[in-house]
Amino acid sequence: MAPLPWTLSPDRCFDSEPSRRAVARELYGQVRDLPLFCPHGHVSPHLLADPAARLGSPAELFIMPDHYVLRMLVSQGLALEQLGLPTRPSDQHPHGAGVPVETDHRRIWQRFADHFHCFRGTPTGLWLQAELVELFGVTERLSAESAGRIYDHLEARLADPTFAPRALFKRFRIELLATTDAATDTLAAHRALHAEGLTTVRPTFRPDALLALDAPDWPDQIARLSAVAGVEVVDYHSYIVALEQRRAAFKALGALATDHGVVSPYSARLSEREAEAIFTRALRGQARAADSARFTAHMLIEYARMSCEDGLVMQLHAGSLRNHHQALAARFGPDRGADIPLRTEWTRNLRPLLNAYGADPRFRIILFTLDESSYSRELAPLAGYYPAVLIGPPWWFHDSVNGMRRYFDQVIETAGIYNTAGFNDDTRAFASIPARHDVWRRVSCDWLAGQVVQGLLAEDEAVDLAHQLAIGLAKRAYRVEAGGA
Amino acid sequence: MAPLPWTLSPDRCFDSEPSRRAVARELYGQVRDLPLFCPHGHVSPHLLADPAARLGSPAELFIMPDHYVLRMLVSQGLALEQLGLPTRPSDQHPHGAGVPVETDHRRIWQRFADHFHCFRGTPTGLWLQAELVELFGVTERLSAESAGRIYDHLEARLADPTFAPRALFKRFRIELLATTDAATDTLAAHRALHAEGLTTVRPTFRPDALLALDAPDWPDQIARLSAVAGVEVVDYHSYIVALEQRRAAFKALGALATDHGVVSPYSARLSEREAEAIFTRALRGQARAADSARFTAHMLIEYARMSCEDGLVMQLHAGSLRNHHQALAARFGPDRGADIPLRTEWTRNLRPLLNAYGADPRFRIILFTLDESSYSRELAPLAGYYPAVLIGPPWWFHDSVNGMRRYFDQVIETAGIYNTAGFNDDTRAFASIPARHDVWRRVSCDWLAGQVVQGLLAEDEAVDLAHQLAIGLAKRAYRVEAGGA
Amino acid sequence: MAPLPWTLSPDRCFDSEPSRRAVARELYGQVRDLPLFCPHGHVSPHLLADPAARLGSPAELFIMPDHYVLRMLVSQGLALEQLGLPTRPSDQHPHGAGVPVETDHRRIWQRFADHFHCFRGTPTGLWLQAELVELFGVTERLSAESAGRIYDHLEARLADPTFAPRALFKRFRIELLATTDAATDTLAAHRALHAEGLTTVRPTFRPDALLALDAPDWPDQIARLSAVAGVEVVDYHSYIVALEQRRAAFKALGALATDHGVVSPYSARLSEREAEAIFTRALRGQARAADSARFTAHMLIEYARMSCEDGLVMQLHAGSLRNHHQALAARFGPDRGADIPLRTEWTRNLRPLLNAYGADPRFRIILFTLDESSYSRELAPLAGYYPAVLIGPPWWFHDSVNGMRRYFDQVIETAGIYNTAGFNDDTRAFASIPARHDVWRRVSCDWLAGQVVQGLLAEDEAVDLAHQLAIGLAKRAYRVEAGGA
What we know:
homotrimer, alpha/beta, uronate isomerase, domain 2, chain A, TIM Barrel, 2 domains, 19 helices, globular
C-alpha cells in the first residue's frame, strides 16, 4: 500500500469551536518559541557531560529506556526480553526461561511498530509522533509496514552530529535542565559540566534511599553517604550532618531543589530521642516494622527545616506504589512500568509539616499527586492558603491533554494560578522534552482561550498568563528570576 | 392541551460544534447498524427459551422489574406497593401496613407517567424515550395527561407477535447474548436453547452466593451445589471440585465468562490448611466474623487459577453495598434500587491476584468499578501494564452519556483503547438493549470526533476505532473472534 | 497609563459555541431577574435588624470579613495584621511579634489591589468584579495603580443611604434570607426583625458547639443553653428537652431548617443508657477520647428524629477540617481561611440514620460535600433512592463555574434534578449575594442549553428547569411553597 503521510495538525490540542480556537492560536503563537525551563526531570547528566555521547539506536532512544512505552507493550503480551531488556544476573525466575533477550534493535523496533496503534489516544503516542515528525523529519505514518524504512531514516539522522545531545540541547533552547540525583551521588558529571561552564544543567538532591531503614541495601547507602560526605555516619546526629553536607555540595553545583518520593505524604515530628533510637536500631540491623514509615514522616519535617535554612525548594512526589509486579522488579529492576498509584491523603498527613513551616517565608514546597481526586479537595485548598505550598503540574500518567484539562479545571478556581508551579517535563527521554512542553503550552493556551471566550479573563490577562504558564511560574517556583538562571 | 409530539434528535449525544458533529455523524453512520454483541447482562434465559414467552403489560415491561425506574419513583415518595411490587410473605414491617399492593397495571403506569419529568437528564429517561419512540412507535410525549393513550398503544403493540422476545431478538440483530446465572443453576433454560440450536444465548457462571459463608442460606447453597454438580461437598477440596464441575457444565453450554460481585476487590492467598479450616468451620455453622472476607479474598485467586485452566474470562464487579436500606430488602427482596456504591481500592487489593496471574497469557480479568476516582488513579494504570487486565465499560450508574465521557476522558490516555473491553449493556430490561448500545455508539463516535477535530487522531484511525468500540473490543475481550461467536 | 476599562461580558459563563450560547441566553433571560431565595447563609441578622447599620469601609466590606479573600492574600505571603485583622488578646505567638495591625483601611485596600491579579480565574475574582462593576458602578479595572481612585469611588457610594443594608435587601429582590445562628443564640436580632414585620429574614438552628463534649468551652455552652432555653441541663434527658425547646423557639421565628457541621457524617444509634453515660461523663469533665465522635454520631440520628417531629429541614455539611493551621486559629480565631477539606465517606456513615428515617415522609435532609469524588459514587445514588435525601448545591470551594459544571455532570444523571436542592449562596458577604446567584443562574442555563443542543432535553423542558434551578427547587427543598414564604 502507498505510504500514509504523517503530519501534525498545527491546531492540535485546540478546541474546535472557531472563536476559541482563534484565541488559542494567538496565545500559542506568543509562547511557542519561548525557551524551555526544565526544573525537574530524569535525564542523565552523563548524556551532556560527555561531548562524545550519542542517543543510540532508534530502539535505545525510543523504546528500551521509556517506561511509558514498555508498560503498554507489556500490556499487549510482549516480554521485556523481546524488547531487548536484559534480566538481572540474579534472575532465576521460571517465567522467563526460554525467552531470549533480543539483541537485534531493528527487530525491537519492528515489534514496537507492530503495536503502535495501541498508543492511539495516549500522550506517549502524541509525543512520539511529534518527535518523529518534527524532530526527525519522518513523513510517513509508523506502522508494521513502514517500520523498516523509518528505522533506516532514524538511524541516519542519529548518526549525524546535529543529533548529538549537546547539539540538541541548544536546538531545543533549553534555558535550564535539572537532573535528579541520589543524595549519595558523587556528582562527577555535574562537576565536569560545571568546570566546563555548562551551568544550565543542575543537580537535584534526592535522598529517598537513605530513608528506607528496612531495605536490604540501606547499610550500603549509609556507607556511601559517609564516604561521599566525608562524615562518618554513626548516629542520628551525624546522619543529619552528612545530609546537610550533601545538600551544600548539591547547592554549590547550582541545585535549586530537593526531591522526595513517598508512598504517603505522612509527616510527624519525633522527639530527638525517638529519632535517635529508631536510627540506632536501624544501624544495628534491628529496625522494626513501623520504624521506616515513622522515620520518613519525621525526616520530611527535617527536610522542610533544612529547606528553610539552605533555600532549596522541596519537591514532594507522593502516592506511587513502586514495583507493583514483584516478579518484574526481581527480573528487570525498577522503573519498568509496573508502578501503580494509590489513593493519597494530604490534609491530615501534611498538617504537622505545614504547621511547623507552611507559613515560613523561607520555605517552599511543591506537591505532586497521582490521585486527581485530591486536586480540588485537598491540594488546591492547601496551596490557596499556605504561603509555602505550590501545586506541581499534572504528574506522570496525568501529564496528558486531558490530564492537564482536569488540572486546570479542578485546581485553578481554588488555588489560583499563582499558587501553581508551571510545568516540568519529568522525563528521562531527552529527545521528547520539546514535545512535552509543546503539549503543555498548547493545552494551557487552549484553556486560557476558553476563559476568554466565556468572558472570564480579558485578552491581555490571558496573554500575560500564557507567558506565566509557559515559563514564568516555573522560574518563580524554583526561585530563578526572569533575569537569568 | 394538544399532544406534544415526541421525537428523537438524529444528532442526540453529539457535541453541537459543527465540525465535530459532522465527524461524529459520519462515524456513527458506519456503526449504527452493526449487530449487537452482549457479553454481560441479566436478561432471563426463560424469556428466550420459551417460544410462547411475552413481555407482559407496559407496567411489567417498563416499571416493575427495572430498579433504575423503581429507585427514582421511591425517591419521590412512592411506595413499591403502589408500583405493584408484592411484599415478601414474611413481611411484618409496620411501615408497610395499610398500603395495598396495586394490581391495576394501568394505575401503575399512570403513577410512573405522573413522575416522568423526574427522569429528565437521566440515562433512564433517554433509554425509555428511545424505546417508546423508536421501538414502540409512540408519537406523543409521555405525561400525566397522555399516559392512558400511550398505555393503550403499548398494550396493542405488546400483544402483537412481532413483539415477542424471540422476534425482537432477531429484530435487534443480537449476535450473542450472555445471561448471568447462579453457579447452582441447573441451566435448564440454556440446555433447552442449546438443544434447539439457539447457541447465541450463553450462560455466565456467577458463584457469589457460595462465598457468603456467614449468610443464613449458605448451607442451602452448598446443598444445591452438591446436588447440581453431583459432587458431595464435604470439605474444601470437594467444594473446589464441585465448582470446577459447574464451570465445565457452563462452558459446555457456551459460557464465555464468570462474574464475581464483591464489596471490595480484596485478594489474598490462604494456605491450603487455612482455607480448609475456614471452610470446615463454615460447614459446621461456626464461621467467624472475618472468615467470609478472607475466604472470598482467597477464592478470587482460586477463580483466577481456574480461569487460567478453563479459559473462562473473569469479570469482577466491585464496590456496591447491596441493600443499603435494610427495611426495603426485608420487605421486597434484593435488586429494588437501594444498592449504593462504596469507595474502592484496587491497587493494593488486587496485587496478590495480579502477582500470581496478571502476566499469565491464559488469564483475562475485566474490572468494573462504581468509583470513578479509581479510573485514572488505579484501573487505567493496572490495565495499561498487566497483560491479563482489561477495564470494563462504565458500569451501572455510570452507563450514561456523561459517565461514558468521563470514562473516555480518564481511562484512555493511560490504559489505551486496546486495554478496554468495549461495551456491555448489563441489563435485565431486554427491550432496552438497542437503546443502550445506541447511546454507547453515539457517545463513542462523538468522543472520537473530538479527537479528530483536535488533531489527536487521523480520520481513518477514528473509523477503525469506532468499529472497535461498537463491537470489536467486546468480542476480543471475551475471546470471540470476529469470524463468528 | 490610561485606565483599563472594566466591563462584564453579557455572555459570561456561557459556552462559546453559537447554537448553545443562543439557547443559554434565551434561558438566562427568563430567570435573570427572578427574586433571590437564600435558604442558607451567614449574613449577620444585626445588619438588617438595625436600620442604621452600614456596610463599613471598602476594606471592611470586601476584605476583612471574607475568608475567601483572606486565604488568597495569606497564600501570597501577607500577614493578616497587614489586612487589619486584630490578634486575639491572648496571643503570645512569637511569629506575630513586630507586625503591627494595620488601621489604615486605604492601605489595606491597596495591598488587596496589589494582589488582585491572583484572583484571576477564581470565583472570588468573578464575584468581586460583578459587585464592583454592577453594584458599585466601578468602570476601570482594579489594579495597584487604580486602587486609590476606586477606593474613593466606593467610599462615596457606601456613604449613600441607597447602599444601606436594608436598601440593598430590597434592591436585590431577596424573597427570603436565612441566617445561621448558634442554638444558644438569644435570637434578639431575629425577634426585633420579626416584631417589625420583616419576616423574610429567618434564623437557622446550628447546635454544633453543644456536641463538642471535649472542647474547653463546652461547659459554658451548656450553661448558655440552660439559660436561654430556661431548662436546667443536668443530664442527657434535660439536654434533649432544652434542644427541643430551642428548636421550637427558632421555628416560632420562622426557621426553616437546622444546620450541622461535622468532620465526618458518621451516624450511629446509642442506647439511651449509653448516651446518658457519655453525657454524664462529659458534665463531670471526664469525657473520654472517643466520646465526642460517638455522641455526635448518635445525636445526628436524634436530630433526624426531631426533624421528623417539628418539620425543620436538616442540613448536613460534612468534611471540613477546621483551623488546619493551628497558629492562625490561636492568633485570629476561626474562619480565617485555613479550613481544609477531607475525604468523606457517606454510604456506610449515613446508613444507620437513613435506615431509621430516610423513608419517613416527614423527614428531609440536605447533604453538602467538599469531596467531589462522592458526587457520582455516593451522594447521587443516595439521593436517587431515599425520599428524604436531597443533594445541596456545590459548596464553598466548589461554588464556582467549574464546580457547578462538575456538579451537574456528576450528580444529575443518577440523582435526577428533582433530588437536588437548588442553590444557596452560603455567604457572609451580604453585598455579594446577587453576584453569586447570578453565576449559578448563568451556569445552570448554560448546562441546560448544552442538554438542549445535544438533543437530551426539549426546549420547553429546559425553560421549566431553568426556573426550577433558579428558585423553584430551593423553595421546594426548604418546604416553602411557590405561593409565598
